[in-house]
Amino acid sequence: MANQLGVVAGTPAELLSALLAGPPRTVRLGGAGHDPAEVAELADVLREFGHVRVIVEAPDDQAPVRKPGDDGPVDTADAAAVCAADPVQVTAAYESADDECGGLRGAWLRAGQSLIRDQDPALRALVLQTALPADAEPGVRQALARSAAAAPWQVEWVRPCKVAALAVLPGGALVVADPGGGVRVLPDGVRQQSTATRVKAAAVLGEDTVLLLDERGRLHRHGGAGTALTKAVAATLARHPGTALAVAADIVLVGDRMGSVHAFGSDGLHQAALHSGRVTALAATAAPSLAVWTGGADGAVRAWSPAGGGHGSTVSQRPSPVVALHTGPTTDGQALAVAWADGLAELHRPGRRDVLTFRPGPAIRAVAVTPDGALCVGTEETLVRLRPR
Question: With contact defined as beta carbons under 8 Å apart, do 219 and 202 qualify?
Answer without folding.
Answer: no
